[in-house]
Amino acid sequence: MSDITKQSLTELVKNIRSKKLSSTDVTKAFIDRSEKSEELNAYITNDFTSALDKAKKFDQKPNLDLKLPGIPMAVKDLFCTKNIKTTAGSKILNNFVPTYESTVTENIWNEGAILLGKLNCDEFAMGSSNETSFFGNVQSPIDKNLVPGGSSGGSASALAGQLTPVTIGTDTGGSIRQPASFTGTVGLKPTYGSCSRYGIVAFASSLDQAGPMAQNVKDCALLQEVISSYDPKDSTSIDFKRNHYSKELTNNIKGKKIGIPKEYRVDGMPKEIEDLWQKGIQYIKDCGAETIDISLPNTSYALPTYYIVAPAEASSNLARYDGVKYGFRAKGQNLIDMYEKTRSEGFGNEVQRRIMIGTYVLSSGYYDAYYLKAQKVRKLIKNDFDEAYKKVDAILTPSTPSSAFKIGEKTNDPVSMYLNDIFTVPVNLAGLPGISIPAGHDAKGYPLGLQIIGKAFDEQNILNIAYAMEEKINFKNKITDWWIK
Amino acid sequence: MSIDLKTIKHISKLARISVDEQRAEKLAEDLNSIFDFIEKLNELKTDNVEPLTSIAETTLKLRSDEVKSKNIREQIIKNSPQDNEDYFVVPKVIE
Description:
Chain A is of the alpha/beta class. Chain A has helices at about 10-15, 25-35, 50-60, 105-110, 155-160, 175-185, 215-225, 270-285, 300-315, 335-345, 350-360, 370-390, 415-420, 425-430, 460-475; strands at about 45, 70-75, 115-120, 165-170, 185-190, 210-215, 255-260, 290-295, 395-400, 435-440, 445-455. Chain B is mainly α.
């Protein structure tokens, strides 16, 4: 049984199709391992009993033409799942049971996958270490007391720990790519508008995007193919021709031009990260592609811009949590008092901090100085990429400025926590696709990732580059099962 | 720039989040360090830059206005912290 959970999604699909394994075998194996892995705290809610029922039902009449035939899968608890509690990692949604399903998860179940449970995340996806969750820290399978990254920390932990063969997260400023980088896994943030936002608990609507997280690039391509769809229920969903990403995947990237942006060489960046980047450049060349030095001059303004735009949108989105229609309610002496106490007791510190920032930058007298200014700088950042893409097909950068850190190491200093997202945030601001692939280890043995940024709607191209590099890198994740007694 | 306690109280009113003195002081400290960091944007001249208001460069699609969901009133009401028949219940607002 134990080696079932070590198999990639692609292998599991093949083995189920050839009837070497049943959906019940596979589902049981992942449930067993999940049950032995409580110490990771990766799950908020499990749905194991009904997962097993669904697997048995699948096996009675298996439809092997589906893309994810009988594959069990746990998902981030930011996706609404019909009749299954969806918390967004917050006390304020601790008892919320959606009456509808998110489009992205609906697409997954329609292709034959089976829900294992809902995975831990930073509260409302606001965090880079999974430490803001109301349901507690998540442990990294890489090492004890190490953060798995965030906000899709439970997803990264469950994936790297082999509690789920593949998973989905959401990425507003790096929340898929940074945890993927911290846990030695692959994470793709698709182009804005590629995956529907319908039924995803909203954080910052102009930045939020769902995406796949997987053990390897091929699995990632397959899951992206399943989740990406045009959806009339999301007004910013874009109707473009989507590739069969896994079928069209190729490691032939000869002649591709890859940009190396000098502004990503930031002060204080550890030598290990610089070395990793240089190694990545060499791999690109070994694959027959060409690297070109480019400039993205406004890169250093991306993070300050993000910390205006994202909190502004969050303060507006989170206004809906008032203790009236759903979620937690505190007692109050009157209506206003009830609102204020509900939000004070229901939201954690980081969420309150961001609502306060957002409310301030949108308030009368400050709007032009902050919000409008940020929208203008966002335009400049997007222009930088447009200019670069006249010369190159994709861009290679490190995924994060450091490897994973210890739990508690950065919780007292919000700005140092925010700096984690320095290489991922510009991609969200410009609405582009970006993928993080594991590319090496630091001196402590912790994984490090490289990021490939593409043109809008050019997921196939960055998947291909990632696929070609993956072969050269030949990364092996060091999972010791330290948490299993 | 400095955000004082009075401003924190004002924002917390606007955001409908009650904060006590101790929390207000911590928030003032955090927000000041975050805004110090944000101020970097003032280095950039942006007078002639058009603000980016939507990243998806498409026009909104129109659709016919039809009811698609079934009658799910009961399910929706079930999620409310306090309800009475078909109504959400809130603390009394009129005398």
